[in-house]
Amino acid sequence: MKEAVFEVTVSLNDALAFASLSGDWNPLHTDEEFAARSQFGRRILHGAFSAGLVSRMAGMHIPGSDCLLHGMRLKFLQPILPPARLRVKGTLVVEQGDTGRVAVDVSDAESGRRYVEAWYEYGSQRPAATADAVSHPTTTGEPVILVTGASGGLGKALLARLGPRGIGLSRSGEGAVPALLEVAHVDALTGGAPIAGIVHCGWPAPDNTRLTKLGDAAAAIEYNLSQPLHQSIALSRVLIARGTPDAILLLVGSTAAQPGRHNYRMPLYTLAKALIPPLCRILAIELGASGQRCAAAIFDVIDTGMNKAMSARARLAHEDRSPVGRIASADDAAAQLDWMIANRSFLLSGATITLSGGALP
Amino acid sequence: MTSGPRIVTALATEEHASAVAAFYREVWNPAATTESVVAATRRSAARNVAAPGEPTPTALVLAGNRVVGYCGSIPQRLWDGVRERPAYWVKGLMVLPEYRNGPIGYLVVKELSRHLECSTILTVAPAARRLFSALGYTDLGAVPNWTRPLRPSVMVEQLDFDALGLNRLPNWVSAGVSVGRRTGIAGLTAKLAGLGLDVATGLARLPTAHLDTTGLGAPSRVELDELWITARENLKASPLRDGTYMDSRFGNGGEQGEAEENAGNPYTFVTTRDRGRLVGVAVVRRPRATSDARLKGIRVATVSELVFPIDRPDAGLATLGAIERMARAAGADALTCMSSHPILCGLLRRQGYLRLTGNVHFFLRDVSGSDRLRTDLGAWWLARGDGESDTSF
Amino acid sequence: MITDRDAKLNEIVSAVLELPTGTDVSHVRQLGVESWDSLAHVSLMLAIEGEFGVTIDIADQIALTSVPAIRLYLEERGL
What we know:
The structure holds three protein chains of three kinds. Chain A is an alpha/beta fold. In chain A, 34% of the residues lie in helices and 26% in strands. The radius of gyration of chain A is 24 Å and the shape is elongated. Chain A starts with a strand and ends in a 6-residue tail after the last strand. By secondary structure, chain B is an alpha+beta fold. Helices cover 34% and strands 26% of the residues of chain B. Chain B contains twelve helices and twelve strands. Chain B has helices spanning 17-27, 34-46, 104-114, 126-134, 152-158, 171-183, 186-204, 221-232, 243-250, 313-329, 342-350, 389-392, and strands at 7-11, 59-63, 66-79, 84-95, 118-123, 138-149, 238-239, 267-274, 277-289, 299-307, 334-338, 354-366. In chain B, strands 1, 2, 3, 4, 5, 6, 7, 8, 9, 10, 11 and 12 form a twelve-stranded mixed beta sheet that branches. Chain B is globular and about 70 Å long. Chain C is mostly helical. Chain C is built from four helices and no strands. Chain C is globular and about 30 Å long. The model of chain C has no long low-confidence stretch (mean pLDDT 89). Classes of the chains: A alpha/beta, B alpha+beta, C mainly alpha. Chains in contact: A-B, A-C, B-C.
């Protein structure tokens, strides 16, 4: 697991400098006499100073020079009383392509007392590794297919198949979009071309943290469950506004949502993917009012992205679950999505199709 | 370098109730709850005839906190020709689909067997039979199945006699069947054959005319106890069939299992009395489409229980007659009965039952040190309702 | 060239699964062989433990569902 650590000494002058930069002259941070009468007995460092330390972790260490900070959250456990020697440790907990999430701990370098617990999400301002997987907007007026998660293995493979009619959307790199896609953003990307389909591959990667061990359950739920649901709703609205009469929203699910030998080792991922079948049926009804459709494709393990690093033994175990002794490649799965996109029938709407090659649970 | 959750075997306690309920929901009963599991456990402990008050042994294999393998048991008492012995039926072996063909089935049966000094099994599945044999259970063999056609025209049209192993049919049956099928008038021929059969079996029962088989309802526990005490004198090996067992298993106080039997108790008692004294009793399970694929959907009533003193063949014949009348009244196309005991088998033949190739194997394991329990199948008095196998197959 | 370990493993697999003599078992998988049932699996694990002097944890036994997987397991243990 990728980690980075740095130490920094903060002095009373640092507190004054921060007050000067930020304009926060609250006497608890700047007035010795006032602070002496408080419960702390002396001046405490601005909580937001720690945000700067988090920013340093992101900009200088993980991911470093190409970092584009998307968001951060901090929890102040104890006040920092300068002068103090601080130890800042960052741990990369999720990485998917050029994006990721890092947990940060700020503690006393000598005693180990924890001051701040934080996490941040980042993207990259560097173009995606295979830039040709992210297509440029078409200007021909022909219907296009939007693919979210374009920087992931499945997204890239699908865009390669779709050719010029595919438009990739990701949170970073070319085609970078805000957290929630809106109609105005889409027009800029599509050049006004109608949308024949949206393939939603951009779900958060598996997080193996047990539910009862989550440090910040609210943040984890927001990231893993709420955001994907918001995104699906936003994409549905885009489809209604800009979709062709029989346009389709394709949701990409996983067999990890069902019981199996995985024993729910990725609980948040399982919960998020478990939403897909009923969400598909609900959106099929709502999109049906405008003649549009929603369907879902459920895959088992795909040999791409997060799964590339699996051990030889894990790989064999997955192959052994398959009646044909194979794990699907990104292109195998992309071919199935292409097949579903090509199916223009209304009967596909509301369908959740498991495309696991018959793999045992 | 193990991956995945820790695998452990355990004997189920109330602490496992949540995990067991989750397992039940996955496999058998979507409505199972922790509370229902705890309640059922306490109920079975209260009724445990093998070890009164003790929970019925149930073995689990757990992957982390999840039950992935399960094997239960049913308390019973066995008669060994001299005395009663506590024992258990092994029942309900189940492994989650994603764990099958691995070590789980073996582990769970092995764990259960550790806690059972004396146990029996009735099972059909070949894979399960291999497993039980490997774990020290002796396969006493396939218990013969017997079928009495009540509406032969229906059976002739639907049965594959070769698959059923009916290669030694009475001449009048096989001749009638082959003529009927060649000429396309199977229904008529079978009706005539059936009529002949009924007349013949009726004549066979004439010596029982002095016995009363018109009684309705279950006998009292006292009567059933007296009948059992009499009947067991000439039996070498049998599960106990006294009043307590009969009442709890087949009476309205019993647990009747299958969800589809929500119209009430599926069992009906028939009795034979000699000047008021109970000399024969049977329990018939109401007709339903059979689960035996070889019998192809015809409605079959099952003789789940049958007790009479084997030195009173008249009582046996009269009881079989009562069973037949009851089954006809309930709309059955056929009756099925299971027996390996030569006395009963002889009576069944006289009453027009056809012997089918057996597919239910009887297993026995006794590590108590006593060698009294017989290992020849013909010594055993077995019935279709034993080990609740009339609910499974 | 086949190693002694692989030759022994193949011999055990052939015997336990009762496969015809001469069958190439080096890539056999549980899903593809009818005789590889629960009892055969336990027998296979016991035979491997006995032959190679290793104790196979139950969680690992569940994952050893093909000859290649068993071979890799033994390799990882320097056997």
